Amino acid sequence: MPPEENGKAKATVVDMPENPVKNLTVEDMYDKEKYDLSTMEEGDVFKMLEATRDGLTDEEVQERLEKFGHNRIDHKEKSPIIKFLLFMWNPLSWVMEAAAIVAIAVSNGGGEPPDWEDFLGIILLLLANSIIGFIEQSKAGNAVKALMEALAPEA
């Protein structure tokens, strides 16, 4: 927060570069130590962004879209199948998978048949663990999504 003066936020004084929009990089624009648009005087913001209250021309819009891209937060969604399979890729699951392999491969020594009951029990426990984890993570993810939709990012 900028220092306050008589209950109002104190404006930041900025050394304005020549032809700012064309000469500044995206990184410069996001560096709040250099240019914090939220604390600058309104006139300085318009000057820096080379804009007016009337907005931009179509040419200026295209030029800025090419330089800065669209004003949105990109979110990549993972496949639900991949998310589910990731619950079988952790140390606890590795131990259970190893136990299943031992139950099916090693326990049939001495001419005895494989231990199918233990093998199926371990696999069912592994699947149950993964299903429960997947469902709980989905619920938590849906709650976070709802919160994110309720909050507007600062622009």
Automatic annotation (TrEMBL):
Organism annotation: Adineta ricciae
Residue ranges occupied by any Cation-transporting P-type ATPase N-terminal domain in the UniProt entry: 36-108
InterPro entries referenced in this protein's UniProt entry, alphabetically: ATPase_P-typ_cation-transptr_N, ATPase_P-typ_TM_dom_sf
Protein name: Cation-transporting P-type ATPase N-terminal domain-containing protein
Transmembrane segments: 84-107, 119-135
Top-rank taxon: Eukaryota
Keywords, sorted A to Z: Membrane, Transmembrane, Transmembrane helix
PANTHER family, A to Z: CALCIUM-TRANSPORTING ATPASE (PTHR42861)
Coiled-coil annotated spans: none
Keyword Membrane attributed: yes
SUPFAM superfamilies reported in the protein's UniProt record: Calcium ATPase, transmembrane domain M
